[in-house]
Amino acid sequence: MADVLTWLWREIAERPDGPMAFRFYLQPLMAMLFAVRDGIKDAHAGRPAYFWALFTDPTHRRERLREGWHAVSRLFFLAVVMDTIYQLTVLKGPRPIQGVLVAVVLALVPYVLLRGPVNRLARGLLHHRPRARGPGSPAR
Prior knowledge:
Elements: H1 2-13, H2 23-45, H3 50-56, H4 61-91, H5 96-128
């Protein structure tokens, strides 16, 4: 069993240096962009931080998971497809568990880790933003 895990880890660790290495930068970047977009939406809607809410708000957990999955599902599947192409061309055979593991690390982890802090940062910026004065409001 230890030999299998060592082999699995070695094959995964070699991927960022080999062909198609751009995906190790592009896919987390895309996940981060989606997280920023959704974190800002959460702040405007007054929702709690995403990852924290998954554990502390059981009534909305399923809705939040579905919403998060919808946001990154295409990116996740793209990561699986790209890793499968890598496996077939470089490793000369499919490695489905490795493909899913790489897709989780490249697509889901950055999204989940960044969405909540962006929400909190955006909420703080929205809270401290000076309010626009309308016509007829007194000057300060």
